[in-house]
Design brief:
mainly alpha; elongated; 6 helices; about 150 residues; single chain
């Protein structure tokens, strides 16, 4: 929902501001929206199971058999197939992917700076800031995951 609101605001200011201003605005709105949307994905197997249990209780209270069946299947899948080691590896891969994006953006930024392309510099600097912010959030999520996985 935040994304839709941000997109509407972006479309509204689209004609009124320069490319750099629009890029900065879009970067700021995404840096606020994306971490909020992504946090629930950094769960341990136990947390995933607990979340499904809560949803299952709600579905049972509302006598929603279709949802109960779906949630029971998800719960069984988590019990059978979920591994914190696999999740840790997946989360570590996200960090590596962001580190690679940051390195590539830094390389492109250095090239744009050498060429004196101010618009490209601004665009790449914004991209670098966005990815650095995402990396910080991902590292915090991994640390939270590691803490939760201990228990």
């Amino acid at each position: 929902m935040n994304y839709n609101i941000n997109l509407l605001i972006y479309k509204r200011i689209k004609m009124d501001f320069s490319y750099t201003t629009k890029t900065v605005f879009l970067t700021l709105t995404l840096s606020v929206s994306i971490p909020a949307l992504a946090d629930h994905n950094w769960q341990t197997c136990k947390e995933k199971q607990q979340q499904i249990e809560k949803q299952l209780q709600y579905a049972q209270a509302n006598h929603n058999q279709k949802q109960i069946n779906r949630l029971n299947a998800q719960k069984a899948d988590i019990i059978q197939n979920c591994s914190n080691d696999d999740l840790r590896q997946k989360y570590t891969q996200k960090i590596n992917k962001l580190n690679n994006k940051i390195s590539e953006t830094q390389r492109k930024l250095a090239k744009a700076q050498a060429n004196g392309d101010t618009e490209k510099i601004a665009e790449l600097q914004n991209k670098l800031n966005e990815n650095t912010s995402k990396l910080q959030q991902v590292k915090q999520n991994l640390a939270r995951f590691e803490q939760a996985a201990k228990y």
